[in-house]
Design brief:
There is one protein chain. About 55% of the residues lie in helices and about 15% in strands. With about 425 residues, the chain is α+β, with helices and mostly antiparallel strands. The protein has 3 domains: about 10-115, Orthogonal Bundle (Butyryl-Coa Dehydrogenase, subunit A, domain 1), CATH 1.10.540.10; about 135-240, Butyryl-CoA Dehydrogenase, subunit A, domain 2 (Beta Barrel), CATH 2.40.110.10; about 250-395, Up-down Bundle (Butyryl-CoA Dehydrogenase, subunit A, domain 3), CATH 1.20.140. Helix 1 runs parallel beside helix 4 (about 80-90) and helix 11 packs antiparallel against helix 13 (about 385-395). It is globular and about 95 Å long. The two termini are about 45 Å apart. The mean pLDDT is about 95.
């Protein structure tokens, strides 16, 4: 069996078009309009005047929402093709929006497509796929980020309605979203993994109160797109239950597995961008009588970043290929490995890039410090690194048996003794000829 790293010519042509499109159309949007506010606020005039015409070009090219099946207006690309595509999109904050695969909307669309009723798809999925609205995934709670066992946000059935009561933390993009997918405890008498449900909650529902907007570390207090929200007995029709009662975590895995992989795919593009900045700096800046590129320490930084990028890219592509072959559930270890590696590779590359750029590297005149923080955030998004490292460890230990003798199975004295017994007749011949 041969391993072929080439890309079929037809798809390579698409990738070349995507790269050119991102550089000429998406990157200027990053520079002119910045990040989250412009991307998710669909009422901003840039969407009508610039974004939608560009999205039409993507659709005409047959590259819109490629993560979804043809029945939903996508191409049903497998994860391997998506990996090659997303590593280009990762060079720009706006690019995913232009291609109909912007998180969290892409993941939210995926679970509504899988578990939503026809009425839910018409009301929420259709405008989301058209890029006309933004959405929010509201799961984390102030007292329980990575531990759903301590979730307290409740959903109680009252007649033909569900009543949601409790708080959620870091509900990203809620301030611009038309609806949120809210996870709440619907049955506190069973384990949380069987007792939580998901609900489609319009953001104009009475009782939905944003306590404050939280930003990233570099953003001013009061700014940012991550809401601390209180659901004050918010009522939604029983028809707004997504999937079945108690199925929240089953639904979440449909969303989170792909999301973790797609974050990693885009990180490949971001790290390549950092390496490009490092290389340019190395051949442009002189100090102590020679270029930075001539310094052994700088060469070490460049070489290490290149190695990290290549190893990480292959890890991501292998995980994507594995999902295509056996499905996401059977590829848990591969997805966990990618999730662990993503923030480490990203932050290491960003730190080296900052070092090469000196004071300029930590300033707001370069994107590097913001990228470093973005890499750190990926160590928390969709579950902290430590949780996924535990998943990997369990995978490694799954079929390992304890030593039966008290000595390690690779203990040389025992192994030599067994080997000598096996070849005793030959060893005797050797001694006899000595």
């Amino acid at each position: 069996m041969a391993i072929d790293f080439s890309v079929e010519p037809e798809f390579q042509e698409q990738l070349d078009w995507i790269r050119e499109f991102v550089d000429t159309e998406a990157v200027p949007l990053d520079l002119a309009f910045g990040g989250e506010a412009g991307i998710y606020d669909k009422s901003h005039p840039v969407h009508a005047e610039v974004i939608r015409p560009l999205q039409e070009k993507v659709k005409d090219r047959g590259l819109w929402a490629c993560h979804l099946g043809a029945d939903l207006g996508g191409l049903g690309y497998g994860q391997t093709k998506l990996a090659l595509m997303n590593e280009i999109l990762g060079r720009s904050g706006w690019a995913s929006s232009l291609f109909g695969c912007q998180a969290p909307d892409s993941g939210n669309a995926e679970i509504i497509a899988h578990y939503g009723t026809e009425a839910q798809k018409e009301m929420y999925l259709a405008p989301l796929l058209d890029g006309k609205i933004s959405s929010c995934y509201s799961m984390t709670e102030p007292q329980g980020g990575a531990d759903p066992n301590v979730f307290t946000c409740r959903a109680t059935r009252e007649g033909d309605e569900w009543v949601i009561d409790g708080e959620k933390w870091f509900s990203s993009n809620l301030r611009w979203a038309k609806f949120a997918i809210v996870m709440a405890v619907s049955n506190p008498d069973v384990p949380i993994y069987q007792g939580a449900s998901m609900f489609l909650v319009p953001t104009d529902s009475p009782g939905l109160e944003i306590l404050r907007h939280t930003g990233m570390a570099h953003e001013p207090v009061g700014h940012g797109g991550h809401a601390y929200v209180r659901y004050n007995k918010v009522r939604v029709p029983k028809e707004n239950l997504l999937g079945g009662e108690g199925q929240a975590f089953k639904i979440a895995q449909t969303r989170l597995g792909g999301g973790r992989l797609h974050h990693a795919m885009r990180t490949v593009g971001s790290v390549r961008r950092l390496l490009d900045m490092m290389a340019e700096r190395a051949v442009s800046r002189e100090t102590k009588g020679s270029l930075l590129a001539d310094k052994q320490g700088v060469q070490e930084m460049l070489g290490r970043t290149w190695l990290d990028l290549q190893q990480f890219r292959l890890l991501v592509l292998h995980a994507a290929w594995t999902v295509d072959q056996v499905g996401g559930a059977a590829a848990r270890a591969e997805i966990a490995a990618v999730k662990v590696a993503t923030p480490q590779v990203y932050t290491d590359a960003a730190y080296r890039c900052m070092r090469l750029h000196g004071a300029l590297g930590i300033s707001n005149e370069m994107p590097i410090a913001g990228m470093w923080l973005g890499g750190a955030a990926l160590g928390l998004a969709d579950g902290p690194t430590e949780v996924h490292m535990t998943t990997l460890a369990k995978h490694v230990l799954k079929n390992v048996e304890a030593s039966k003798t008290g000595w390690p199975s690779e203990h040389l004295p025992e192994r030599r003794e067994a080997a000598r017994k096996r070849f005793a007749h030959l060893l005797e011949h050797e001694v006899g000829n000595a």
